[in-house]
């Protein structure tokens, strides 16, 4: 294994460890996407199954297919979720045949160099059932830090550019807005200015339990922020 591969594995473990602490974060995403999570659902970039576990508990989802290109992640996912249906590969590998009602892509698109082609693949899969893309990505290029590079992120997004890419792929946008204004400043300080290269699980836990519920409640019920650490999009595929 090369040094770069080892670094990527370590970075992924840091990312997964942080997400494991982010319990309220995962539940908030499920609430935001819940209306569209029904029938046949495809989870792209399932990783080691942290979001898959929550998706499998939704009674409206009749079939969940977890797609993950990394063989070691697939092995870990199958170990923790033996009942999960796992495909090692990418969305572009999947053949027509299933009418997908939703594609869930959470912190995945930034890892893909040719993201326009990835969005086109999502549209191809969703178009027969006019399904919904539930998308969540890191935001704001000025926040791009060494830790982004460690995680294999090609970019962070701005709202206007993501809108253009979604519409060019054939999607009709239902929601597209920034999330987590405090996280914007926290990321900028810790990872951009101070150059930290890993998460502190205790800090993630504190933010998730004590700060995030208040922030998400305000941003989702009262006013989305003008800028944020992430972008959330829900977009429907036109029939094909």
Question: Helices and strands in order, then pairings?
Answer:
Blueprint (H helix, E strand, L loop, with lengths): L2 H19 L1 H11 L5 E6 L5 H7 L4 E8 L2 H10 L4 E4 L13 E5 L8 H12 L5 E7 L7 H5 L8 H10 L2 E9 L1 H13 L7 H21 L8 E8 L3
Parallel strand pairs: 1-2, 1-4, 2-3, 4-5
Antiparallel strand pairs: 5-7, 6-7
**CATH 2nd-level architecture:** 3-Layer(aba) Sandwich
Structure classification: alpha/beta
Radius of gyration: 17 Å
Q: Provide mean pLDDT, rounded.
A: 91
Record the strand order, biggest sheet. 3-2-1-4-5-7-6
Number of strands: 7
Question: Which stretches of 5+ consecutive residues score pLDDT under 50?
Answer: 1-11
* Integer tally of domains: 1
In helices, the fraction of residues equals: 40-55%
Strand percentage lies at 15-25%
Order of helices and strands: HHEHEHEEHEHHEHHE
Discrete helix count:
9
Shape: globular
**Broad CATH class:** Alpha Beta
CATH superfamily, called what? Vaccinia Virus protein VP39
CATH topology: Rossmann fold
Distance between the termini: 43 Å
Mind summarizing the main beta sheet? 7 strands, mixed
